[in-house]
């Protein structure tokens, strides 16, 4: 299509960073989310679906600048009025709902939400500007029993979608023990947030890189600094060796039993009231989970979990898939994180002035779906339909009746509705539709009251096979009485 | 909350015209859409989920004006680049997909799509700016067999969600017979679209009001004009009496059998080639449907169907629910239309320059859901959870274990996670959650290895009942061994 000829034709393209989902891509995700929703429901969580559009004011975080407040969000101004924006997650709308309906909702309010969110970010490979989130939160429950419940429910949800026990672990830590750690190495004064703030930031970022840099790398960053492979130098947090050592020791305190981990943490944080409070919470969580049968093979206390430090105020958790997959370069690596969450106690306060305790988890829908596919656990796509071919244009009613008979027996079926002139095109169509069986009835067959069934799956196998020998007992094409259509197709499908 | 004290607190409100959906509102709709999707799949239709955001250019219809192209849509400009907008229906994105992937998709391409769409319109009572659509379309099938298939599938879908046979009818007409009618009364010259265009517009609008104004009202509008109850005068189309009569006769040609209707239309449109072509198409559709067992009790030829005249090019259809409901004023009226569609052959052409035949249907999700609720056919909301109350804060682990036992038996259950101090609040909570059973275990019960079950449904009935006599044999509260928890709760639920 040349530009000169048709300069005004619109481009048939999604906007950059957006994509379409076809067939099994839609139904696999849906089946996974349905299974998760069922688990959430069983735990007493209620569905909530907020609108995609919120006022920028209610979304918060992204405040309007002079002209356009669309840093990170898709936003627009109503004629001379409010700025509106697409939600960027499901938590900000929940906070708005919890404030708006605070007199009507039960307290605590357990809710789950599933749906797309939008980010106005630079798209990259595999990074889209619209994607699904799947959240469960409990609003209004101050007790860490609510956090324990979320962790247990997350484990149940992972198993419900097909991640086997042993293939995942939910790691739990607590923002308060990190605070305690910072206190004990002199990087935090709870009465003066600005004290050593820069050094604390460096230390926190170093801790966050523990997975990647390991013990010695993190120690360098905690002390004088570190030169990376490219020669770039990162300034350190200025701790001495013993202080740095206590940090890395802390990070490695995931011991064989939760009791040992808790005991170790209690020693390390003995001098921090905040830290010990966090350890106590973790101990309570571990006890509650233990009583429900969730041992450390499924949910484990692990102080190396570091999530959204500015956001969470208590327990934090992360679900990790522990089986290995091959990365782009063919190297084995652990699949990694598929969900995370924690306690955040300040979101509703923005609206009402009253602190409302809340905790929740967000499952990375695309990541988890990729894991299910990697394990062959994604819902099998619907089989292609039986295609009733059209040999005789005047007998469409007969073909439709055949398709209807098949459907009434629960078999997916359709009549070919393209141009029927070239029969080859009909078989190509059936191939594109991954059709298992083609039904054929020309004038001759009709006069004899029969139809021909073509086993397309067998046909494809024969085409791929080096030898026809193994197939010779099973004909790829059979003629049967019209009255046997449903039974014969079913037999072929079960073949 | 006074404005002086907290002037910068955001309002906890959805933007005007948007709303939130809670619990059963979400799950009822989902169950309905799931049932429809199953029918569509069975007919060989594939799921498609396009992004919510499209370029304004691809959406078409709403072309950018100088400043903001957001007439009717929510639109915004990417930094100095494309204008983007939220989709306003599911057909425009389908046309874009059909063009973008034309070399990869099967031809014909049968797809269904379900999801929210957005309209930047003035909100009103019950009119929202975000709402669900549920579409099925066949792209690339020129034959009216595709239209017949859509009609049959629509009937199947309505029955699948719980609309009984006899409570709905799919009415089918054809844009071409309306053209033929206009030709035969001298209001259309197929070679000169501008000929009598104004009068034709008046006549078409009059026809569209046939339901409401009846025969004599429409005749007036077709002739000299009509004064309404308020005294306003609407100019007529200038037909003479015989011409007007032929129009109203046409509109009333829905006769007891499709054969009679077709024969009647054929007489009325004898002088219009276009009209007769339309009648022929209707006859084919009726024959195809008849062969699949869809008689006029379910799908009927009805020339009074008038839909989106600028858009459709061939068969048009509308599903109507025929049972009566009470309107706001307490008057009985038919429930009315819940779905509509037809053939549109020009949408893909915008992108590629090549005409691509297409036909499809859109179900009004909110309307159909309202109908199911009116008939008591909406999916029953999930029962409220069994609430395990907290009598002893130190024994949370025991309470969690009880809830886990119940869930493992498939019973929805949760532990009360609010402040447990006041037991009355826990029962109020259970009431708000529509909980059927409260589980109670204080220190004394724990020491004896028992739990108390409170039948909250029975309790509510007793509270409403004038006499306690009828309940006396059924205690609203029982003490049972802890080991019998699951069995006893189940028995109470089955009550």
Overview of the molecule:
- Two copies of one chain form a homodimer.
- Chain A is of the alpha+beta class.
- Chain A folds into two domains: 24-52 and 87-185 and 239-374, 2-Layer Sandwich (BirA Bifunctional Protein, domain 2), CATH 3.30.930; 386-494, Anticodon-binding domain (Rossmann fold), CATH 3.40.50.
- In chain A, 38% of the residues lie in helices and 21% in strands.
- Chain A is built from 17 helices and 19 strands.
- Chain A has helices at 24-42, 56-59, 91-100, 145-161, 175-184, 197-208, 210-222, 241-251, 258-268, 273-291, 349-352, 365-374, 396-408, 423-432, 443-448, 456-464, 485-494, and strands at residues 21-22, 46-49, 53-55, 75-77, 83-86, 109-118, 130-139, 168-174, 225-227, 233-235, 299-301, 315-326, 332-343, 358-364, 386-388, 413-415, 437-440, 450-455, 477-481.
- In chain A, the strands form four sheets. An eight-stranded mixed β-sheet of chain A has the order 2-6-7-14-13-12-8-11. A five-stranded mixed β-sheet of chain A has the order 16-15-17-18-19.
- In chain A, helix 13 links the parallel strand 15 (386-388) and strand 16.
- In chain A, helix 9 (258-268) packs antiparallel against helix 10.
- The radius of gyration of chain A is 30 Å and the shape is elongated.
- At the A-B interface, strand 1, helix 1, strand 2, strand 3 and helix 3 of A face strand 1, helix 1, strand 2, strand 3 and helix 3 of B.
- Strand 1 (21-22) of chain A pairs antiparallel with strand 2 of chain B, so a sheet runs across the interface.
- Chains A, B: Keywords: Aminoacyl-tRNA synthetase, ATP-binding, Cytoplasm, Ligase, Nucleotide-binding, Protein biosynthesis.
- Chains A, B: One of its GO terms (molecular function) is ATP binding.
- Chains A, B: It is an enzyme of class 6 (ligase).
- Chains A, B: Residues 1-381 form the Aminoacyl-transfer RNA synthetases class-II family profile domain.
